[in-house]
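Follow-up to my earlier ticket, as requested here are the two runs.
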Amino acid sequence: MKNKLLSLLVMGALSFAGGVAAQDKAKAAPEKAKAAETGKPLGALEYVKVTATVDAIDQVTRAVTLKAANGDKVSFVAGPEVKNLAQVSKGDVVTIEYAQAVLVGLDKTKSTTRERVVSEAQQSAAKGQMPAAVVVRDVKVTASVEGIDTAKSTVTLRGPENTVTLYVKDPAVLKAVKKGDFVVASYTEAVAIRVDKAPAPAPAAAPKK
């Protein structure tokens, strides 16, 4: 695992846990949050799981450093959206799971203005428990078609914030669009993050007689 991947997933998880952005419209979706919590990637094209340990933590400044299994580290300051930080100690294990779902809607549009509307549902651990959060976002974006791969049944879309490549369940959908078209697309993405206490040390071997 590369340091860049660890950084992106950590920052992505924290931004998810931070609540709804100004352009977002919150709505309840407990069934999707439950699916993410149980590890089901919602029919995802991309499913990434990253595990790291807490290498250092300062409860006063809220500065945290995570260390991956290969030694890569990423440091950040946990904002107020990161709840129950007081329960976290050096050596604890952080697990981040990210799933980006397949495309669920794709229609051509005459609009050439890139837009993105997000509906969000989230669940978090109760006060006093180890930090944990599951966030599911339904994304509707007006974007340009940047590429089509019929062999892989994928379409690459560029919206107002980023470019994503999404899997299309029905390849016939791709026949109706071409590179350069503007489309309205819908898809779902989810992220789950949890912190577990450091594993107990193995008992010392009994001395040989």
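Run two:
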Amino acid sequence: MTRKIMLVEDDQPILDMMDIILRRIGYEPVLVPDVLDALERVKSDPPALILLDIMMTPMNGWEFLEKLRTEYGNKDLPVILFTASPSVQEKIAVMKDPNLGVLQKPVSIPELKAGIERFLGK
């Protein structure tokens, strides 16, 4: 099984920090600051899991998720929303997507590891 985790995030300091953290906990980070580029990369080389920021442009994380699930047919690819927004949990509950989780920013290393392991195992 691939250990690649794609982080779709437009904030460079967060990308830099998560690159170090993901490597430290044993994963191969694929850092993508452009949400449209991320969709193309998923098609050509799907990761084991996507960490997805919500607040991005020109497409937000919800729009990315919708395209990923419907247009691209990736219903089984685990996605963890990586956000500072507290209202995300309510929207996720309504979606009833078993391959969707959420981690609140800022996230601790143990929380990140547990969130990833929920979908990928140890």
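The only thing I checked on run two: The mean pLDDT is 90. Let me know what else you need.
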